[in-house]
Amino acid sequence: MLLNLLKRDLRLHRDALVIPVLILILILGAIGMADDGPALLGLVLIGFLYVPILPLAIHAREDSQGTLADLMVLPVSRRAVVSLRYLEVLLFLGLMLALAHLGTWIALCMAAHKAVPFYVMDRSKAFGLGLTLLFFFAYPMPLFLRLGLKGISLASLPIIVIETFHWFFFPQRGEPFFHWLGGYLTTTYPGPLGFGILALFALSYLVSLKAFEGKDF
Amino acid sequence: MTDPMLQLEALTKRFKDFHLDGAGFSLPAGNLMGLIGPNGAGKTTLIKAILGLVHLDAGQIRFQGRDLLKEGPELRQCIAYVPDEPRFSPGARLVTLKDIYASFFPKWDEGGWRGLMADFGLDPKAKAKTLSLGQRTRFALTLALSRDAELLVLDEPTTGLDPVFRRELLQRLGATLNDQRAILFSTHITSDLELRADLVTLIRDGQIVFSETQDKIRERWGLVKGGLELLDVDVKAGFQGLRTNVHGFEALTDDVESARRRFEGKALVERASLEDILVLLGRRKTHAA
Question: Of B217, B251, B275, which marks where a domain is finished?
Answer without folding.
Answer: B217
